[in-house]
Write a structure and sequence with these properties.
This protein has helices at 5-30, 41-62, 65-71, 73-83, 100-111, 155-161, 177-191; strands spanning 89-92, 125-128, 138-143, 171-176. The chain is an alpha+beta fold and 209 residues long. Helix 1 (5-30) packs antiparallel against helix 2, helix 1 (5-30) packs antiparallel against helix 7 and helix 2 (41-62) packs across helix 5 (100-111).
Amino acid sequence: MCVEPQRVDDLTRAGFALHAWRLLTQYEQVTKDLSPALRYEATLTICVLQSLLTNCWELWKFLNDKKASRVLEPLREYTLSMLAHPEVEVDDSLPGQPDLKAVLMHVRNAVSHPRMKETDPPTTGYTTVEDGTGYVSRLRFTDSPDLTSKGALRTEALERTGGDVNQAHVFSIELPLVVLTAWAKEIAMALAQPVMDNWDSPELAALTL
């Protein structure tokens, strides 16, 4: 049987996403009785999330906005409810309200740049947030499209900001690890649709927070 090249790409992406969901779910199950010191879900979630966001962004680029919005509609609803979660903090100085595409883009940009600490002004990257527990339980993702990695204004932002770094556009989201992991699972479910007949089954993943 001849399968169109794009269909092969879709199935490959979907198969990877399904395996990613299973990996996160299985790890949670097998480590639930371990002490926090012996669990590495933060590392696993970041690694899996980075791959999923890359696949999701490539899919969005291939589809037009209308098709992508339709294909990823369940993920849109989940993501917007996540932004309103009482334990999630969003700081966004870009024009307009963040939608699914914007959130995917911002977190994708941030997750590629691990930071040892927060910078001033805030540059693109992600850091852990100290909460007194000694473990990684909260993370902050920042995307600063107007700033270089050293915190200087990019040439294209100089005119709009008047040279004032405080006028730079910045998006940041701080959230608990458990919420981040749940979001990663939802992204995986959305991408896995082509290889699943029951992808929205409640037995697989909840579609609401």
